[in-house]
Design brief:
Length: 298
């Protein structure tokens, strides 16, 4: 194989830890640039190879309506939207494209549509907030099954809900944060539950933690997608915010709050959530750290 042919198959590659200020924490996402000529099968193969919860591919936007386009893959499937890949990939794009360095707003295109991105710059690294797709709710009969797979901790008063924010989550609120942190879930049963519940991406659980360093504690389980516990999950936190708003529970926490996730798997991270009730929007965001910059041979 000639050197020219090898060079033509190289793509810029980054790996970004999302929802953290420290490398080695938060949730890593792989970002592959100049992905326009890659087909779906190749993207899926790369996502399976990176073996991260998601890999994001950066493409040119279509129709001039966005600044860039993303396709997002887990090791097993493409997702219309996911939170930490959109935040982490935007961070990588800002580093790769100096012409965007002073921008405070961008538009991102993904399979779920056009998403507004807001960038907070306060002298340090930019903090990135992505507006999640509008949440929709579906009925679920998961209450008894949830009790079986998560070990009998006390549920809060609101019933479990299936929430679709581009990624579909079964959302369950518990009464006690310590019980959420101590859970030893049955991953085989979660796989069966989430598959039966119209192929949701996973089961996310949360509880208020008024005395902690965040307003709520969150855990997200996605064993059917090859991810037993996702460290820090943007789309799950968007689904939780929609759950709180729809159940009249947001007032007790406030429209802007912080969620703690990942501590139980050694990846302590924080997701900042902003709910604009007047506009009906939910944005998730936070800090990012680039851990790897280089090229990938395809």
């Amino acid at each position: 194989m000639s050197n020219g042919h090898v060079a033509a198959r190289m793509r810029r590659f980054a790996q970004v830890d999302v929802f953290t200020q420290r490398a080695g924490y938060g949730n890593p996402v792989a970002v592959v640039f100049e992905a326009d000529l890659l087909d779906t099968a190749t993207m899926q193969r790369i996502a399976n190879w990176t073996n991260l919860s998601e890999t994001a591919f950066v493409l040119a936007a279509r129709g001039g309506r966005a600044d860039f386009r993303l396709r997002i893959f887990t090791p097993r499937q493409e997702l219309p939207f996911a939170g930490h890949p959109t935040v982490g990939a935007t961070h990588a794009v800002l580093e790769a494209r100096p012409q965007l360095a002073e921008r405070h707003r961008l538009t991102l295109e993904c399979a779920a549509g056009l998403l507004p991105v807001r960038i907070e710059r306060n002298g340090g690294s930019p903090r990135i907030f992505v507006e999640a797709p509008t949440a929709t709710f579906e009925p679920t009969a998961a209450s008894l099954a949830v009790d079986l797979v998560l070990g009998g901790a006390s549920l809060a008063h609101a019933a479990p809900r299936l929430v679709d924010v581009g990624a579909r989550w079964l959302v369950v609120e518990y009464a006690d944060a310590a019980a959420v942190r101590a859970m030893q879930p049955d991953f085989e049963r979660i796989t069966a539950l989430t598959t039966r519940e119209r192929d949701v991406v996973g089961l996310c659980v949360f509880a208020r933690e008024p005395e902690g360093d965040a307003a709520i504690v969150v855990r997200a389980f996605c064993p059917a997608d090859g991810i037993p516990e996702d460290p820090v999950t943007g789309s799950a936190n968007a689904a939780i915010a929609a759950f709180l708003r729809d159940n009249g529970r947001l007032a007790a926490i406030g429209p802007r709050y912080r969620a703690s996730q990942g501590r139980e798997v050694g990846r302590n991270g924080f997701v900042d959530v902003v709910v604009d009730e007047a506009a009906g929007t939910i944005a998730i965001g936070g800090d990012c750290v680039t851990c790897i910059n280089g090229t990938i041979a395809l």
